[in-house]
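COMPLEX REQUEST
Ligand: 2-acetamido-2-deoxy-beta-D-glucopyranose
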Amino acid sequence: MVVLPYTVAFLLLSCLQTVKIANSQSFLGINYGQVADNLPPPSSNAKLLQSTSIQKVRLYGSDPAIIKALANTGIGIVIGTANGDIPGLASDSNFTKSWINKNVLPFYPASNIILITVGNEVMTSNDQNLMNKLLPAMQNVQNALNDASLGGKIKVSTVHSMGVLKQSEPPSSGSFDPSYGDLMKGLLEFNSANGSPFAINTYPYFAYRSDTRPEILAFCLFQPNAGRMDGNTKIKYMNMFDAQVDAVYSALNSMGFKNVEIVVAETGWPFKGDDNDVGPSIENAKAYNGNLIAHLRSMVGTPLMPGKSVDTYLFALYDEDLKPGPGSERSPGIFKTDLTMVYDVGLSTSNQTQSPAASPQSSPTTTNTTNSTTTTTTTTSTTTSNNNSSTSTSTSTGTGTSTSTGTGTNTVTINISSSSDINKVYLIKIFNLGLLYGFTRLSLICLFFYYLQT
Ligand SMILES: *[C@@H]1O[C@H](CO)[C@@H](O)[C@H](O)[C@H]1NC(C)=O
Ligand SMILES: *[C@@H]1O[C@H](CO)[C@@H](O)[C@H](O)[C@H]1NC(C)=O
Ligand SMILES: *[C@@H]1O[C@H](CO)[C@@H](O)[C@H](O)[C@H]1NC(C)=O
Ligand SMILES: *[C@@H]1O[C@H](CO)[C@@H](O)[C@H](O)[C@H]1NC(C)=O
Ligand SMILES: *[C@@H]1O[C@H](CO)[C@@H](O)[C@H](O)[C@H]1NC(C)=O
Ligand SMILES: *[C@@H]1O[C@H](CO)[C@@H](O)[C@H](O)[C@H]1NC(C)=O
Ligand SMILES: *[C@@H]1O[C@H](CO)[C@@H](O)[C@H](O)[C@H]1NC(C)=O
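STATUS: Structure written out below.
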């Protein structure tokens, strides 16, 4: 067995990291909700997005002015049909066709529409009629796209809430609510047959709201914490985002659809709430979003899906001042409507030249590490202390599973039982980076070594 030594891997990685990072962070998206009366004009909006490393924007509807303003920017656009349109889309293919004629054809391909989400959180709406019509509606939208020769170019899906999972703890036991019966199976078959993603809204924020102990907060904010062991896999999870995404993966896997791509359609943290509110704060919002972005940029992936970052749409671009409900509902914005930042999480293109593992160390939310089991470090040069336990908690340096050399608090655990597994993780990562930045030869070499090890 040929073993690629860490040192070689580190060298290769360091080489890559000194190279200017192209703005190909295609996994970074953001939500643009419009329940507001103070939103900037579409052209300013487009300019703002272009000044960031955000590559995709998700609209809840199909506002033509916004779609048009994004023409020739390359920014991927997700548009949505309202839940109320689902019965019409399901029963009337003429209506579906005219929906595509009106909302897609005038703009595509100058405006890079990549996905149409049919409804939002329909499966947890308790509206059986709507739930029954969801799949036929998606099928009609797909048919209309196919008729317009856009099948495969623009994908069709729907967006779920985490409520579709009956169980999500531990992540390996993630499973869908069995009461959906064949409905969920039909949707997954649709995703699989059409190569469209399973889109889901995941909010570690809500997990914290239901258990407000400090250690849960640290787990949710990607900060140093004791981690959570998945007893089935012996994988120790170091953050809630990975745990939630892997729970979704396990649910898909249990239905035989592990190859369906997962997209996180919404995730975020409000920076302000009502007086009695726990959780919302600038500090927490900045820590969550900043550490999440660094985690995604590191390409570490989740323990069950290592070496890649799921497409993730931050919530949200701006506040929506007309939204009902608690104050936190109106305060998810990363940008103000005057286009300045509410807080800086390194989204600006001027932050792109740093390593993909942008360090969130400037965050004011430095936590007390004296009591954490994983000590993290922000330097790249610490040597690996190869701990032999079957689940090795990876600090960014400890086990060498991570290129996220700078992400002090961004610890992800991968089940590493041998050094060859560690090497494989490296190889996958270098392979991906090579592809990402056009070092094809490097990728091929990695592939070669990878197969030597398997
Ligand atoms: C759809 O439109 C076509 C022509 O525009 C028409 O002939 C057909 O009856 C319509 N179908 C329905 C179900 O409305
Ligand atoms: C994790 O490692 C343990 C011990 O080596 C092994 O039994 C288990 O199957 C592994 N889990 C995964 C998901 O690889
Ligand atoms: C992003 O870049 C700007 C300008 O170089 C810098 O002031 C800011 O601190 C950076 N933000 C982060 C989070 O790295
Ligand atoms: C960190 O934790 C230790 C022990 O729990 C405590 O004594 C110390 O004051 C804490 N430091 C901060 C900055 O919270
Ligand atoms: C660590 O945290 C636990 C619970 O959060 C607490 O009981 C314990 O005293 C802490 N230990 C130290 C050394 O601070
Ligand atoms: C492995 O790590 C654990 C916890 O971090 C520690 O208790 C143990 O002594 C380490 N084992 C070796 C062989 O270093
Ligand atoms: C890991 O454990 C195995 C046996 O369990 C031992 O042979 C090996 O030397 C250990 N390696 C390290 C780096 O501790």
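REMARKS: The chain is about 35% helix and 15% strand. Residues 14-23, 353-418 have pLDDT under 50 and may be disordered.
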